[in-house]
Amino acid sequence: MRQSLDGLDPSSAGSAPQLVALLRELRAASGLSIREVSRRARDRGDGLPTSTLAAVLNRDAVPRAEVVAALVRACGGDEAAVETWLAQCARISAADVADTGQVPRQLPGAPHAFTGRERELHLIDEHLQSASPRSVVLAGPAGIGKTALALHWAHRSLDAFPDGQLYVDLRGFSGTDPLAPGPVLHRFLTALGTGPEEVPADGDERAAMFRSLLGHRRVLVVLDNARSPEQLRDLLPGTGGSTALITARTDLFGLTATHGVPHLRLAPLTREESMDLLDAMIGRGRVATDPEAARGLAAACGDLPLALRLAACQTLAHPEQTIGELRDRIAEAPLANLDLPGDEAAGLRACLDLTRDRLDAADRDVLDAIGL
Ligand SMILES: Nc1ncnc2c1ncn2[C@@H]1O[C@H](COP(=O)(O)OP(=O)(O)O)[C@@H](O)[C@H]1O
Ligand SMILES: [Mg+2]
């Protein structure tokens, strides 16, 4: 029986019908009837009812992994043989899905009035050229501009990803539970054209299918606000033309250790970039009328993009107030003056309160620099 099993090579099947034909041959070579295969499977603890087996062997679709595994085992295959069959099933399913050509466009819009970060954009390009698999982590404290940088890079690189862009907020620091990889994979697989009933129940198989799909295509995956390496491992592309951009408030060195994923730690904007951001937001030459006060305002905001934007909103809301006055108020009490009345969720307090106790020392230094 072993010999006849070895003679059947699942990787020779290039389509679902060919794979099912090979499974029929496997059953025939075992010398067992369908009923006997089913009984053996049951004796081994695998559920494989006769009716299921008969139906699967008469259809042209790739059967579910549990069915294939039970059949191969009952016909005398060892675990290595089971793996080989399952890998081929995943390959064929992925190729079938690739043929449906569904192109997801999940990126949120490009950030408004994005300013500076030329050096960082260039570093991302460099990291992604050399990293394998192609992934990079953008790390830094709340409000430093990780998501904005990731989205800006993504929008300017759309041509490199003709097979689409996937985006998820992993809710690593949003006060609710971080998203688990399983449901994220489900969402991504269906976005790439997998029917919900074709998504494997088993986590490892799900991840394998995702990697197969990404390997066939050039897709950008933006994994925003990640919590831990464990949350990310199954969401990274393997080999092939796809790329992952990850943002996180903590360094995820575990990913560097296990997957060689490089890190880019974001610093606050340069003072010149801060001035450009204020200019882009406030407009009408107000920055030019009192550049010294604008510099002071940028300093009071610690050159943190979130703080700068909130300060710019205050300036727009109170045109009677000079930039110098706002600078003085913010220097006195940053939190109180950088919250947006009526939009508490967007304010600095909301962003920082959630995370202060989860920050590491380097993050705290940045916040301390602006007196928070
Ligand atoms: N380089 C930049 N130019 C203009 N606005 C920026 C820049 N970086 C960040 N912002 C803005 O600052 C705010 C906070 O940035 P965000 O990317 O959400 O921070 P993070 O993801 O690090 O918490 C957002 O409103 C964002 O659009
Ligand atoms: Mg973010």
From TrEMBL:
Residues 22-82 form the HTH cro/C1-type domain. It comes from the Bacteria. One of its GO terms (molecular function) is ADP binding. InterPro entries: AAA_16 (IPR041664), Cro/C1-type_HTH (IPR001387), P-loop_NTPase (IPR027417). This is Helix-turn-helix domain-containing protein.
